[in-house]
Write a structure and sequence with these properties.
By secondary structure, the chain is α+β, with helices and mostly antiparallel strands. It has 8 helices and 4 strands, in the order E-H-E-H-E-E-H-H-H-H-H-H.
């Protein structure tokens, strides 16, 4: 049994996209961040950080979106979303999985919040322009980060790039724009967008019903 603790328009989208790529049945336990459901005791018992997503796989709880993607790729190898142990591509694959939350996301957040970055030697991503150049070169060689093989790393990196461009924190570069647009057309990602729109409507309806009681 796979259960995803999820909130639409959050990092939970990354994990749900990965679940759709894996193709195994799963349940969604929706949480309203506006209502503070992620800070209630029931969910804090799942993830003491009070953040989404969290994945429960037969009693094994995994948090952090990139870690969930890595876990699912290894737990369900038939989906072909990760190079196996011993494959020379495993190293670059893991590099990109960690690059997402370790370099790409912090750089985007600093720009969104207009925070003054510290010395390059103190920042995990060095500087945003260098980080973006590294990503642009990788996706330009595409079609995916590992060439012809789509992996969980693409789920993580594409999600970060898409968010950064939507937030106007990253400049539009042709290589990156083409990469994100190409992956956005994947059936699994399109399903997630459609399902989350429906989930938002359902959650809004539930709140209206509760308010009318």
């Amino acid at each position: 049994m796979l259960t995803l603790y999820h909130a639409p328009q959050s990092r939970g989208v990354i994990a749900r996209w990965m679940l759709e790529e894996v193709g195994e049945p799963y349940e969604v336990h929706a949480l309203s961040l506006k209502m503070g459901e992620n800070r209630q005791a029931a969910y804090l018992a799942v993830n003491p950080m009070g953040k989404v997503p969290a994945l429960d796989h037969d009693g094994v709880v995994v948090t952090e979106a990139a870690a969930i993607c890595c876990y699912l790729a290894d737990a369900f190898p038939k989906a072909g979303l990760a190079p196996p142990l011993g494959d020379r591509r495993r190293g670059p694959y893991l590099k990109w999985l960690f690059f997402g939350p370790g370099s790409l996301e912090p750089a985007v957040i600093d720009r969104v919040l207009k925070r003054e970055a510290g010395p390059k030697s103190m920042l995990g991503y060095g500087d945003c322009d260098t980080m973006l150049e590294v990503v642009a070169r990788a996706v330009a060689a595409g079609p995916y980060l590992l060439g012809d093989a789509f992996t969980a790393a693409d789920v993580v990196i594409c999600s970060g790039l898409n968010w950064g461009m939507m937030a106007k924190a990253l400049p539009e570069r042709a290589e990156i724009t083409r990469y994100v647009a190409r992956i956005a057309e994947r059936p699994a990602r399109r399903r997630v967008m459609e399902k989350d729109v429906a989930l938002l409507r359902e959650m809004a309806g539930d709140r209206l019903q509760q308010g009318s009681r």
